[in-house]
Amino acid sequence: MGKFIENETIGACIGGDEFILIVPLANRGKIADIAAGISGELAKYEDPAIPAEKRLSMAIGYGTAYSVKEDFFKAYEDAEKMMRYVKLLDKNSDSRSIMKTHPEIGYRIAMSWSNFEELAPYIPLAP
Fold first, then answer.
1. I need a surface site. Which of 18, 26, 38, 64 has the fewest CB within 10 A?
2. Could you report the per-residue pLDDT of 100-123, keeping only the tens digit for each?
3. Cβ neighbours around 59 below 10 Å, total
């Protein structure tokens, strides 16, 4: 994933196989590029001989926060809901086709660095 994100991006494991990316000052196009890059990299490891239900898959959701105090948790919930929806779709189709169908799926929480110190204690991290 490292080659698709910048130094300012913060990544954290939030449980098992789920991660959050906080991309400061991201726009929809930038997030689409990150999601497409990660999806494309994952596709390199797909083996058509492996049944679809046993292949690696990826579900990405996004939310946007413009104010740490008011929007962050709503953005997090929106991203979580979208990710769950994509996972549900993925049970019946290949994750690559989902990414092609929804090219702007990405995970983004846009905020300024001036707000980050205020937000940091609330970012859920896996133990």
1. 18
2. 333 333 333 333 333 445 545 555
3. 18
Task: Report the SS3 class of residue 110.
Answer: coil
109, 22 Cβ separation under 8 angstroms: yes
- Measured distance CA(85)–CA(59) in Å, rounded: 8
How many domains is the chain built from?
1
Q: In order along the chain (127 residues), what is the average pLDDT of each group of 10 residues?
A: 72 74 73 78 77 72 69 76 74 44 36 43 47
Structure-token match 């086709």, residue found: 97
Number of other residues whose CB lies within 10 A of the CB of residue 62:
23
Which range marks the domain in which residue 29 is found? 1-7+19-71+97-111
Residue 116 lies in a domain: no
Residue among 100, 108, 117, 51 nearest 83 (CA):
108
